[in-house]
């Protein structure tokens, strides 16, 4: 006895009868063999056929939604061409699947056109501009919150955490004096050496003392101090607050009814505001000392003469210009550092990213503020 072989590959047998064509799908019309079934359907649509068409589904071995959908779409395409399509020997399972997949209409995604180099750069610039605008908005909002917090502290001094402020004063100020003093000495040496080399061409090397004195006291001393504090202290503040946020310590403060602004942020900002004038003064002394050492060795100037020329060069106005910038720069560094620390999202990578932003944004804003203040004091004749 010979067994009838079951055909797995889907195919469609075609029988012509006068003005009528009968299609008999056979095999397995399932997703596994869809790549073989699709050409069968496309071949039917390319043929020249009479108006009367019949699909006999009695020989279908097995089918799923993909096979049913292919046959259904083929019938629909033939009807759209003007043919009359009739279905025979349709099973209940085929009818059920046909009703399920009938509403489905695949939408082909349009492949975007390749952007030119100019378009890519323009889009990148637009995204960065939006990010900067959003960052500036959030920073202004945070500045407003800090201002309100300081106002509440002045209204109720009992909320001021003096112990925390003193601890931060020691960490941000006293511990930073050695590095700032050494850096200022090095900067004073460089200024004196470079100034002397240039002024020697005009026979005015004695004015190197004036150059070093005014530059250090008015601009260089406070600026190098602010840059060092932004790199040393600002990054530390951002990392500390970021780790606290990751460890949910800030959420714990909120749960206990304590304000992170009063407990964590304002003590750090106030400590930087109070300690920056001290660091600026130390930087001025270090810069003048470094410049004096270079001038005394290269120009054979006595310490008494150097001190006298420094006293003549530096006015009270010049001294206070540098000192008055210090609290503002401290506030900028403190606000930016705390702002970035509170923006940490909960991963170690976010801590590193926000710490880097803190240093960059702090130095950038300090430099801009220094330029604006220099113009302002010059216009005021100070």
Structural account:
The protein has 382 residues and is of the alpha/beta class. The protein folds into two domains: 11-101, Transcription Regulator spoIIAA (2-Layer Sandwich), CATH 3.30.750; 122-379, no CATH class. 70% of the residues lie in helices and 8% in strands. It has twelve helices and five strands. The chain has helices spanning 34-46, 65-80, 92-101, 117-155, 162-172, 177-199, 208-246, 249-255, 260-298, 303-313, 316-341, 348-379; strands at 11-17, 20-29, 52-56, 60-63, 84-88. Strands 1, 2, 3, 4 and 5 form a five-stranded mixed β-sheet that branches. Helix 6 packs parallel to helix 9 (260-298) and helix 9 (260-298) crosses helix 11 (316-341). It is elongated. It starts with 10 loop residues before the first strand and ends with a helix.
Structural key phrases:
382 residues, alpha/beta, Transcription Regulator spoIIAA, 2 domains, 12 helices, 70% helix, disordered N terminus
| Poorly predicted runs of 5 or more residues | 1-6
Distance between the termini: 117 Å
Q: Any idea what the shape is?
A: elongated
Biggest β-sheet description? 5 strands, mixed
Radius of gyration: 40 Å
Helix content, binned percent: 55-70%
**Residue fraction in strands:** 5-15%
**What is the average per-residue confidence, as pLDDT, rounded to a whole number?**
85
Number of domains: 2
Q: How many helices?
A: 12
Structural class category: alpha/beta
Order of helices and strands: EEHEEHEHHHHHHHHHH
Give the oligomeric state of the chains in this entry, treating copies of one chain as homo and distinct chains as hetero. single chain
Total E-strand runs: 5
């Amino acid at each position: 006895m010979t067994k009838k072989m079951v055909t797995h590959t889907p195919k469609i047998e075609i029988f012509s009868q006068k003005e009528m064509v009968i299609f008999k799908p056979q095999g397995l019309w399932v997703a596994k063999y869809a790549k073989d079934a699709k050409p069968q359907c496309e071949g039917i649509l390319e043929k020249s056929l009479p108006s009367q068409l019949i699909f006999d589904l009695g020989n279908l071995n097995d089918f799923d939604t993909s096979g049913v959908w292919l046959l259904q779409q083929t019938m629909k395409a033939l009807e759209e061409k003007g043919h009359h399509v009739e279905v025979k020997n349709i099973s209940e399972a085929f009818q059920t699947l046909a009703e399920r997949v009938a509403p489905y209409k695949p939408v082909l995604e349009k492949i975007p056109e390749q952007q030119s180099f100019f378009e890519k750069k323009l889009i990148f610039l637009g995204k960065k501009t939006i990010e900067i605008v959003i960052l500036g908005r959030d920073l202004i909002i945070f500045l407003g919150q800090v201002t309100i917090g300081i106002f509440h502290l002045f209204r109720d001094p009992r909320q001021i955490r003096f112990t925390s402020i003193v601890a931060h004063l020691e960490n941000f100020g006293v511990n930073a004096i050695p590095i700032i003093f050494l850096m200022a000495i090095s900067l004073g040496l460089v200024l004196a050496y470079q100034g002397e080399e240039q002024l020697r061409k005009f026979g005015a090397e004695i004015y190197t003392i004036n150059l070093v004195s005014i530059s250090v006291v008015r601009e260089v001393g406070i600026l190098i101090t602010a840059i060092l504090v932004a790199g040393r202290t600002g990054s530390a503040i951002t990392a500390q607050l970021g780790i606290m946020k990751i460890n949910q310590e800030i959420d714990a403060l909120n749960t206990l009814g304590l304000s992170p602004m009063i407990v964590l942020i304002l003590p750090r900002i106030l400590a930087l505001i109070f300690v920056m004038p001290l660091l600026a003064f130390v930087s001025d002394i270090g810069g003048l000392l470094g410049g004096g050492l270079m001038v005394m060795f290269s120009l054979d100037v006595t310490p008494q003469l150097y001190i006298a020329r420094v006293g003549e060069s530096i006015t009270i106005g010049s001294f206070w210009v540098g000192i008055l910038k210090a609290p503002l720069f401290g506030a900028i560094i403190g606000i930016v550092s705390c702002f970035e620390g509170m923006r940490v999202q909960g991963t170690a990578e976010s801590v590193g990213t926000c710490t880097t932003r803190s240093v960059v944004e702090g130095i950038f804003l300090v430099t801009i503020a220094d330029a604006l203040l220099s113009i302002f004091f010059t216009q005021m004749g100070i």
